[in-house]
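Run log, item B.
One chain of 129 residues. Sequence copied directly from the ordering sheet:
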Amino acid sequence: EVQLVESGGGLVQAGGSLRLSCAASGFTFDDYAIGWFRQAPGKEREGVSCISSSDASIYYGDSAEGRFTISTDNAKNTVYLQMNSLKPEDTAVYYCAAIPRGGFYYCSGYGSSDRMHYWGKGTLVTVSS
C-alpha cells in the first residue's frame, strides 16, 4: 500500500521556521519525484517545491525561492521541506505528492498537479503575524 505521511506542521510566528517531513512507503522512492504543494482557504492549490533525488532535479515556486529548502533522506524514504522566514501568507495545508520521475514537469508547478499519482493527507501550517 502506497503511503505518504506528512508531519511537522504547526503554529509559528512570522519570521520563524518549520521543517516538514514526508515519509513515503509502498513504492520505489528513487523512481519518483516528490513535491510539496499547499492550499490556503479559498485559494487554488499551489506547487511549492519538488525534488527528484535520482537526477538531482529541484524546483522551487516563486513563494518558496530563497526561503525554503527541499531535501531527501533516501535511507529513510523521506522528503523534507525546511521553511525559514515564514510569513502569514504561508499559512496553508501542506501536502506532499509523488509521481514517477518522468513526470517531474507536473511536480514542478508548470503542469497540472492533478497528474500527481499519490497524495498525503496534509499538515497544517499556521503563521501568525
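Observations after the first pass:
- The chain has a mean pLDDT of 95.
- The longest helix spans residues 104-107.
Flagged for discussion on Thursday.
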